[in-house]
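thread: overnight batch results

M.L. [08:02]
morning all. the overnight job finished for the chain we discussed friday. pasting input first so we're all looking at the same thing
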Amino acid sequence: MISRNFKNILVVSIGFLSLFTAYGGLQSLQSSLNAEEGMGVASLSVIYASIIISSMFLPPIMIKNLGCKWTICAGMACYVSYSFGNLYPGWYTLIPTSMILGLGGSPMWSAKCAYLTITGNIQAAKDGKKGSDVINQYFGIFFFIFQSSAVWGNLMSSLIFGQDTNIADISEEQLQTCGAADCGLTVPVNSTTNRPAQKLVWTLVGCYIGVGVLAILIVAIFLDNIDRDQTSDFRENREPFLQTFLATFTLLKDWRLVTLIPLTMYSGFEQSFLSGEYTKNYVTCALGIHYVGFIMMCFGAANSLCSFLFGRLAQYVGRATLFYLAAALNFGCIIGLLYWRPHPGELAVFFVFPALWGMADAIWQTQTNSLYGVLFPRDKEAAFANYRMWESLGFVIAFAYSTFLCLEYKLYILLAVLVLTMITYPIVEYKEYKNPTPPIEKGTYTKNKDSDDMDEGKVICQTEL
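M.L. [08:03]
and the structure it wrote out:
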């Protein structure tokens, strides 16, 4: 029989899987579904800009008042609103729902990270294990399940839009403009980039709305409210509003967080590159838009499997080894993409790059989230809000220069941020090795007077001041 803590991890993971089956699929298709006047890309820019604003103040306020569970539910509702906006896409529907999604996104992700960290520390205290090892495993399980959403979301779009059989031939002349060989600012328009029939769009978006609502119900019904006592205490003994409001910025006084900014921003750069530049300038340009779903499914499958694997391996080989592996994989891919001329005759190569990128992204996601949980166990809300803020800034910068920089220069920028990351990250790792952060499980978890079972969710997490 699985423990209650493990059950909660599964509930959170399945909830996010369902939610991002919808959002991930919509995100991959925005540039083609809503291409008029760049409306789709503009909506994505608004989303991540709103996440930055949200990260500045909302996560600590919402999590401390509502608790992790209900903050997650509220954030999920914001994501579903974006799906509704895509039913009748326009500037007056997409932009407002993009802002709503962005405002709810940071609290939701911060609450998820805090929930996994609290649950991992509780289970570690119960089993007599290191908190960091259990947290690593829990994040690995989460991303194993969560990252498969890229498979299911893109499978849905591929099957539904696959009913449109109007696929054009791509000329040799057009192939010369694909990849980094040409500037890559524009992809020649052909029938593969036409918007699918409106009926098919409504069918797909309707399915996405359904799985989004299902995600909210799963979390609301089945997830334990493990920090209920903390939120009650907070509401009864409120900290000064300004203190809570500025918690995200206050944590920037910690040099470790500042040093991790390049690593965190790189996560945004590398994700936006694959979903935006690679799919547009390599896949759509050389194969057609009908292949984008299959390519992203390959990325999602590799990411999902490697998230589980690396979450387990971390306790044996160490975090640093995995980060260096991710850097080597991305470095090799970037160099390869600089020189590769995409051609339909090399179909397998189109899948090799996203598979390797998925392996690397699995490490960036699981280990960076885990690292934040280990370094800032007593400031979880503010720490993960910073994580979401700086990662979103990476997305926004990448979107900002996407329309006016040549693809070759975008690859050089990505490479430069990667190199900076591998210079700054080891500093934090070395200092942590020399002076480990005191694990929160030592003297911070006490049993409820009414029960001796720490696995029944009746555990009070006493935050050290």
